[in-house]
C-alpha cells in the first residue's frame, strides 16, 4: 500500500467540498467552504488553500500529500482553467485555477477537470468501473453530464471539452428548449429537471388520475415517491425517461463500444423504475452485434463521498 | 528516411488490392487478386501470400518489409479475426485471418482492422489528418463507415468493433429500413445508396421537374451529374443529405470534440454541393462552445491508392 495521500476538491455553485483521501479511497477527513460568496477567484483560492492546509494538518498527512485533484463546472484538463461557468460568479471570465491553487499550495501539483469526468475517474479508481478500460459515465443530476473512458483514459478531445453527452439530440423535431440554447437535448428529458418537466407536461395534457395532481410544485423526487406507491402515471414517466436514455445509449455504443454504461446522480436512485426500460430501448436500437452485451451499472461510491473521491482520483495520475 | 517498407492489403467483396508502400506513402508496386472465387479462407490466404511475395520481389524490397496491414470488412484489430462479413463467402464464420496470413508469410507480423479504421490511419499517416491527434473519419460509400481517432489512436472499444457511426439514429420516427435490421440509420440517408433512395422517393412524391425523371434507374452519380447541370431537385437532394450529415456530426462532436471531420469515399466527390449544408447543420446543432470551430475536410489520398495506403499505415504501428 502506497503511504501517500491525495486531496480531492469538488467545486460546486454554492459550496466546495474538500477531502483528504488514501489509495484505497477512504476519505480520512473532509470539510466544506462557501463558493458563492466570492466575486473574484483570488480570495476564493486563498481561502481554499487555507482550508486544505488545515485539513492536511488535522488528518496527520503533512508532507505525504502527492497532489490535488479538482472537479469543477467547465474545468479544462489541458489548460487547468475554468471559463464561462454560469454558476460560478468568479469564473464567468477565464481563470487560471490550477496555476493559482498550486501557487497558493506552495507548488503542489493540481489536476482539474469537469465534475462528470472526475466522477468517471473516481468510479474507475475506487468504484463500479474498477478494472474496466472502456466505459461511459453518465451523471443524472439537475442536468446530464458524461465522462467517457477509452483504453483506460478519460477522453478530453481536441480542446479539453469532450464528453457533453447531455447535449446530443434525443428528440430532433419539436424538442424541449434547453439551457444551452438548442432544443431536444438529452438533458431536457433525462435529468431530474427533465423528469419533473415530463410530469408537468403530462399532467396538463391528460386527465389520468395521479397522486402528483395534488402537489403545487413537482420535483423528480415526488415522481419517484409516487412511483414507489405504484402511481401509474409516475411509472409511465420513468418508462419514458428510460426509453429516451436507452436509445441515446445505443448511439453512444456505436461510437466507443464500451463494456458498460455507469449511472450516477440523484435520478439514478430511481434505478428500480429505470433499468429495465433503459436496457430494452438500448438493445432495440443498437446494432445486433452489441445486443444484450453492454451492461448498465450504477455507481458504487457513497453519495456523500463521491464528488470528493472523483476529484481526488485525478490526483493519483499526476 | 527509414529504408524499410510495408505491405497494405485492402480486402473487398470482389477483389483484394495489394501494394508495397514506403514511409512517404508512395505505392511502389501494386496488384489485384480475386476475393470472390473462394469458399474457404485457406486457399484465399495461400494465393494472397503468393501475390504478396511476388510483389515484394518485383519491387526489390525483399528482406526490408516490416509488416503487413490489412483492411477488411468486420476486421477485428484485437483478435486479428474476420467474422460475419456478409460479402465475404469465406468469412461468414469467424476466421483467424491475421494468424493464417502471418504463417503463410513466414512469420511476418500482420495487423488487421476494418476498412474505415484503416482509412483513418492512412489519412493520419499520409493524408489530410497529418499532425491531428483527434479527428473522425467518415467514409461515404455504398454505406457509411467511420474511424475515430482520439489522442492519436484509433478507438477500437471493448470488443474491437467501435466506430459504427453509419448506424446511429439519423431519423428516429418512421426512418428508412437499414440492412442492419434497424430503421433510420445514418447510412440509409447519407451514403451513395441513400442519395439514390432520396432521389427515387422525392421523384415519386412530387411533380417537380428534373432531368432525373428521364432515367430508368438512378444512382448517386446521376444525382451528382444533374446537380452539376444546375438541376434544382438534385441540388435539394444534396442539401438534404448535407443537413442529415451535419446534424449527426454535431452529436459526434459532443462525444469526442475532434479537431476535424474527414470525409472520404464516392459520395465525398460531391463536396461542392455538400460542404456548406453540412457545416450549417453542424453549427446549428452543436453546443455554442464548438460553433464554427470544427473543420470539415476531405481526404487527400489519391483514390486509387487510398485503400492500400490506409491498410499499409497500420503496419507501421506493428
Structural description of this entry:
Two copies of one chain form a homodimer. Chain A is of the alpha/beta class. Chain A contains nine helices and ten strands. In chain A, the strands form two sheets. A five-stranded mixed sheet of chain A has the order 3-2-1-4-5, sandwiched between helices. The radius of gyration of chain A is 20 Å and the shape is globular. The first copy, chain A, starts with a strand and ends with a helix. The A-B interface holds A 84, 133-134, 148, 150-151, 153, 155-165, 167-169, 171-172, 180-182, 247, 250-252, 254-259, 285, 287-290, 293 and B 84, 133-134, 148, 150-151, 153, 155-165, 167-169, 171-172, 180-182, 247, 250-252, 254-259, 285, 287-290, 293.
